[in-house]
Design a protein that fits this description.
With 104 residues, the protein is mainly beta. 12% of the residues lie in helices and 39% in strands. The protein has one domain. It contains 2 helices and 8 strands, in the order αββββαββββ.
Length: 104
Amino acid sequence: MDLNFRSIFQRTFYYQFNSVHVLTYVLTYHKHGAGKGILRLYISNIAAPKNLIKNTNGNFSKINKVPNLVCPECGEVLGVPTISKGQRRAYRMRQGYFHRKLEK
């Protein structure tokens, strides 16, 4: 019997991220676990929009070739690409530059 304990016992959430300055929708993110903060956005967990997923899931040879996460309206940098624990690609978010809202 093959059970996926992570999906059974761990809570998952979808958050909408908006830019703080102009309140423009940026992305939808699938967060695993009950941790209250968002320090890193793992690129593999970005759920929408499709054009952002295509731009970040390409075959980038180096992390510095991944584009910054920017607000589509004002161009403010919300996150910078980094390699996280376990060699996962993520955006290190700039605190205070985005607002997250839980999707219901």
